[in-house]
Amino acid sequence: MTLETHDGHTADPEPAVERALAAGAPKRLTILGATGSIGESTLDLVRRHPAKFDVEAVTAANSVDKLAAIAREVGARCAVVSNPDRYQELAAALAGTGIEVAAGAPAVVEAASRPVDCVMAAIVGSAGLEPSLAALRSGATLALANKETLVCAGELVMAERARFGAKILPVDSEHNAIYQVLDRERPETVSRLVLTASGGPLRTWSRDALNHVTPEQAVAHPNWSMGAKISVDSATMMNKGLELIEAHHLFGLPESRIDILVHPQSIIHSMVTYCDGSVLAELGFPDMRTPIAYALAWPTRMTAPVQPLDLGAVGQLTFEPPDAERFPALRLAREALQTGGTAPTILNAANEIAVAAFLDGRIDYPDISATVAASLEGATTKPVTTLSDITAVDEEARAVARAEVARRQG
Ligand code: NAD
Ligand code: MG
After folding, report:
1. Given this structure, which CATH class describes domain 15-171?
2. What's the rounded mean pLDDT across residues 176-202?
């Protein structure tokens, strides 16, 4: 994702900095969801640092031409499209290149398991879960943008991470910020996490006006240009709810010690409060290439073409509490995390169905949270154990949410 209001003023990497950071063999990298917003930002960095990366596999859902162009450009060994009907098209587009071609969801999982140093998980939705698990099991460092992976199967994913001794580097900007300032050696010194939220494009809208939001208005984010699903999530603030659950799993704090603070400028990306009253924050111009560069370069850093932060020009940073009345998704996510077990799995699945229906013009904006609430209401939740349990709960919740969408349409 790049900043919409980008004025073209980017930092020129200093040659001396580039030289100092140049050492080392290239990292083998797989990019899942290479054609999306995070995928594009990842590729932008790979292009700027060609000697640092050796691209193994790239994947997409449907955009065959774009995927084929990416695979050729970066010299990937393998390109995979998850829609099995697109196999012939992809094979034709890459004929004679020597690049391996495959199609179907299992082929995406197989691509994620290929031995590499780092897998960028940038698929949208719970479709990213199995590929993320496969990457962890292969021992790769998982650069995790796909927050739905942790929302729908957080316990399972963190248990597999521990079992395989793999590393997860959060790419979501808030979690990346916390990762950078959290003292993981002394967790007992951490009091609270504060996730900042821009408030989304509808932050100042009245309750009445929120009844008449169009998909175009919902995806018009003031600070970030992102894929359609996360843009709608930002407009309902479900994105922050998903991030609350994501933070709980990544950092091990209970829901009661994770705060959400609206900060419309998106300069402070999140904060950690320590027992002595110190609050550590990570700040920067809002551009996803910063957290992506952090994850790609870890444990060192690399230059990113991001506008330098000029706080004098920004002038004011403002804050306000989130409004759970106008944005009930926040409360739904907190409650799902309190309930635990498969409640977050249901929340996530119902939200994916509701957001897709809203983007298709089948339901209204308030129906998104209402559909999620209705899907959680009658559901029985159970402890999360295996992937097949999660998949079954996810499918069942989708069916319930589809029925709820149909009822609201009718
Ligand atoms: P996007 O819609 O722009 O791209 C999604 C990518 O996933 C595309 O390459 C698409 O082809 C692929 N894909 C979609 N459905 C798939 C499926 N069923 N199987 C396999 N591949 C599939 O989304 P995005 O904005 O890049 O977001 C990707 C993930 O990163 C999301 O989980 C989002 O919440 C998270 N994230 C995004 C941003 C951002 O700035 N865009 C910021 C933080 C976190
Ligand atoms: Mg985020």
Report:
1. alpha beta
2. 97
